[in-house]
Amino acid sequence: MLVNLNELLPEAASSDYAIPCFNVFGYEDASAVVRAAEQLNRSVILACNKDVVDFYGVETAASIFLNLAKNSQVPVCLHLDHTYEEDIVYQALKSGFSSVMFDGSQLSIEENIRRTRQVAKVAHALGASVEGEVGSVPYTEGRDHIKSIYSSPEDVLKFSQESEADCVAISIGNIHRLQTPTCEIDFGLLDQIASQNTVPLVIHGTTGIAETDIKKLKSSRIAKFNIGTCLRQAFGNGLREALNSEPDKFDRLYFMQKVLPRVESEVIRNFEMLS
In whole angstroms, what separates CA 206 from the centre of its chain? Predict the structure, then answer.
């Protein structure tokens, strides 16, 4: 069934588990995520990032994933990840996304609040949820213009009170697209942020965080973890091995049946970490 973040995150924020948000790039990996969620009877978030939207277009991306979400036996949120342009956000809402992220992290806190609030008014009128970001979570590659700025507890509180966003992504040492768990989380900063806020908090860059730290984070007000790189690794490495092992084969669906169990296993591993 299709849901928004408000039906998933508040309870997770006040509990010792969190909801995984998997970045998916096509029907195949998205279906593996939903199958794993159904197997475990767990809610899940399917996220489309900028690369997916640029490649497919918003309407096509929605059409690929909406049926999976609506027909699932468990609650599934279809979420538009980091988006800097309101017109794309509004296209996504019109196309059926149940949640959107307006990323104003590169703006002043005042401008971030103002523009996020405008998006939230539209999204809420359509029954969708909104994620914002305060501070700026950097990338190891692919987004050179994105700054690295730790979240200010004062700014997170101001944003939470004034933006009307339903959850807030924070920067506390986490890094997008790390391929190994090597980032250092500032738990003292997290404690300052969490102690002042009642809205659910979000961590991006989960693949780069050690499992021991993830377990500590999920017991705080962190309610949503964005997960992408480890799934891309499972898919890409599995596909490479399958193609190399059977060079005379070329059928797409044949290889998908070989690769998707690896993706599903990686999804289950992440569910278990966050349970």
Answer: 9
Q: Is 81 a catalytic residue?
A: yes
Residue that is written with structure tokens 């944003």 in the block: 159
pLDDT digits (tens, 9 = 90+) for 144-192: 678 889 999 999 999 999 999 999 999 999 999 899 999 999 999 999 9
Q: Hey, what are 75's tokens?
A: 């609650």
Q: CA-CA distance, 144 to 127, in Å (whole number)? A: 34
Please answer whether residues 19 and 180 qualify as being in contact, where contact means their C-beta atoms are separated by less than 8 angstroms.
Answer: no
- The predicted model scores a pTM of 0.96
- Beta carbons within 8 Å of 206's beta carbon, 6+ residues apart: 20, 174, 214, 225, 226, 227, 230, 270
Rg (CA), the chain: 18
Torsion sign, CA atoms 8, 13, 17, 23: positive
Nearest to 58 by CA among 1, 22, 97, 4: 97
Selected catalytic residue, list 29, 51, 81, 251: 81
Contact (CB, 8 A) for 223 and 13: yes
The answer to whether 90 touches 98, Cβ cutoff 8 Å, is no
142 pLDDT higher than 70: no
CB contact at 8 A, 20 and 12: no
Q: How far is 31 from 24, CA to CA, in rounded Å?
A: 9
Judge whether 142 and 179 are in contact, CB under 8 Å: no
Phi, psi of 185 (to 5 degrees): -85, 135
